[in-house]
Design goal:
Length: about 280
């Protein structure tokens, strides 16, 4: 039954060409991240100033950067970092935000007021300033970036999930569950959460793209991964001084960031069309 429903949703999803393109983009990035050691033609951190800023050639398909490092190899290894940080940080934010949103939305009252005031304080800071402040406090590194983007994302998850719960908890099926003596945990995890999960999946997919973009911005500002570890944002930052003489140093990492963010957004839009019953009818027309 479940497999049949999944197959039906996949066929409907695949009818959206942009969403299918997003799947191919993200799948491509996942593949190159997994097989980066096999696909990389050169050492990603090996420097050779005699070949710095060389354009694309047969030996270096995407050229070399300001230190003579292979840009293709660095992009391949950089995909590992961007995807790992993006997926892991949003996964952690989802877990915490889900808990806070469910508790605040279902119980309301003092609990809701306390949680939402903390969320409001965090949302009062501009997103990027909050992320910059946290990463400066924690320091550079993959783990600290994951923690930074998780903290940065938790308030939005908590607020969105609280809104979903508030829209569902007044429905008749919740009242019926209470009338039959269901306890709070059963109502939350057996009834409320399954009816909110589609919207949560869509929002999480969109947030992965945002997390990858934030990772790149922090790397561009010098607050991301410590050099010489390859990271797309840091590659952009290093190549900006050579934009006129060797634009390929900036162009190719920029394309990688665009593919990752665009792919996640297209998948999120496609999932929204498939999982929302009202939008699903429009797709079927």
């Amino acid at each position: 039954m479940i497999l049949t429903k999944v197959a039906s949703l996949w066929r409907l999803f695949n009818r959206n060409r942009l969403a299918a393109a997003g799947v191919y983009m993200v799948s491509f990035l996942i593949l190159i991240a997994v097989f980066a050691p096999l696909l990389a033609p050169h050492d990603a951190v090996e420097q050779n100033l005699s070949r710095s800023c060389k354009g694309p050639s047969l030996e270096y398909l995407l050229g070399t950067d300001e230190f003579g490092r292979c840009i293709l190899s660095r992009i391949l290894y950089g995909s590992r970092i961007s995807l790992t940080i993006g997926v892991t940080s949003i996964g952690m934010a989802l877990v915490v935000g889900l808990f806070l949103g469910l508790i605040a939305g279902y119980y309301g009252g003092i609990v809701d007021g306390l949680i939402m005031r903390i969320v409001d304080v965090m949302l009062a800071f501009p997103y990027f300033l909050l992320a910059i402040a946290i990463v400066i406090l924690l320091g550079p590194g993959i783990f600290n970036l994951i923690i930074t983007i998780s903290i940065y994302s938790i308030p939005t998850f908590a607020r969105v999930i609280r809104g979903l719960v508030l829209s569902q908890k007044q429905r008749e099926y919740i009242e019926a569950a209470k009338a039959f003596g269901e306890n709070d945990s059963n109502i939350i995890f057996r009834y409320l959460l399954p009816n909110c999960i589609s919207s949560i999946i869509v929002y999480s997919t969109l947030r992965v793209g945002s997390a990858i973009l934030v990772t790149s911005i922090l790397g561009f500002l010098g607050l991301g991964i410590t050099p010489p570890t390859p990271e797309w944002g840091a590659m952009l930052s290093g190549g900006r001084a050579y934009l006129r003489a060797a634009p390929h140093i900036v162009i190719f990492p920029g394309i990688a960031i665009m593919i990752a963010v665009l792919g996640c957004n297209l998948i999120g839009d496609g999932l929204r069309d498939v999982l929302d019953p009202r939008l699903r009818e429009e797709v079927l027309k």
